[in-house]
Amino acid sequence: MCGPLVLMVGARLGSQGTRSAPHHLVYHGARIAVYALLGAVVGTASSLLGFGGHLGRLAGVVSLILGLGVILFGLGYLGWLPRGGLDLAGDWVTRGMNWALQRGRTGGVLLLGGLNGLLPCGLVYSSLLVTASSGGPLPGALGMLAFGMGTIPALLVIGLGAGTLRARARQAMARLAGALIVLAGLQLALRGGAALGIVPHGRVLGVMIW
Fold first, then answer.
1. Beta carbons of 30 and 23 less than 8 angstroms apart
2. Residue 89, CB half-sphere, CA atoms under 13 Å: how many?
3. How many C-beta atoms surround the C-beta of residue 183 within 10 A?
4. Burial 16-37 (b: 16+ CB within 10 A, else e)
5. Tens digit of each residue's pLDDT (9 = 90 or more) over 173-189
6. pTM score, two decimals?
7. What's the CA gap between 93 and 90, in Å, rounded?
8. CB atoms near residue 81 (< 10 Å)
9. Selection from 158, 160, 164, 192 nearest residue 177 by Cα
């Protein structure tokens, strides 16, 4: 999920002529802060309640439900849904992103980064499952902080690159980002279904895809 959204943010900042590097750092700082908070919450809950062994099935249910939601979100953004209630997903993300970035670019980017940290992601779920066995809030927060820091280099390259493109190229990248969101939602839903035994795990050349 992070890659397509960073593409969108980079394209928006580029279209506004904004010096984007500091704003990308704010964006990722907010995202990683949310990861650390989630890690602290999961580490605390697991140590107090002892439900670490049941997290796999719970994550499967959440992954399946949110994956389907992400698919609708991406289809709405691309305008591929019939006119009506469902296509509000795409209108919502477009209006919401424009509103946030126009409200004061630093504050808007901070908000978007924080929301990005709450969006469904298979890698984030996997990391949270690991931190669930960490034994407390501090180890959980530090584990997710390390995970988030490791994602920064690649996402910075994507976001900064999108901001340097010409207008037509930025529009094409925004459409690509919508298509990637649909694929990410499909992968997330299939991962959840596989965790619940609804569909088999998918592998390509020995690599597990979901």
1. no
2. 20
3. 13
4. eebebeebbebbbbbbbbbbbb
5. 778 877 888 888 898 88
6. 0.68
7. 5
8. 17
9. 158
> If 0-12 CB within 10 Å is exposed, 13-18 middle and 19+ buried, where does residue 42 land?
buried
For residue 53, is pLDDT > 60?
Answer: no
Question: Residue 191 corresponds to which amino acid?
Answer: R
pLDDT at 114: 86
% residues pLDDT > 70 (the chain): 79
Residue 48 is encoded by which pair of tokens? 């107090």
Lowest mean pLDDT among 2-6, 82-86, 116-120: 82-86
